[in-house]
Fold:
Amino acid sequence: MVSRQDNNTSPNELYLDVSLLQSLSDTAKWGKVLAVLGFILSGFILLFGLFMQQMLKSPGMEERAADVGLSGFTLVVYGFVALVYFFPSLYLYNFAASMQQGVQERSRQKVGKAIGRLRILFKFMVIMLLLFLVLFAVSLVMLATGVTSLEL
Structure:
């Protein structure tokens, strides 16, 4: 990034040279590829959940699945995982599309909007990571205390 001060520019303005704009454009392209792959993976996770649901309903597995309580729960879990993976992919896609448009048009407002969308992605990821860490800690405590199931 190159900061430049001329007589008719504000010291708070930021100017990007061609190589940095190219790097932002390349980053946005790879972000879009990663987002599309994330959408595809979310779809595969959901399809796998449907497959597991059908497999657990097959003869011979039906009794075992009912004993463990997996018959209806499997689709819910896979659906939840697919949904959780879908949102970061969506936020990444929004960032990439906005960044590509901003760089192509050389629009400071659109690049700023893209950075804002990247910030939303990072916030989502931090929240999800903290939730998973809390769940992991709870499971470790349950494991350490020997609690295997909640009795209501």
Helices lie at 18-56, 62-68, 73-105, 108-145. The chain has four helices and no strands. Residues 18-131 form one domain.
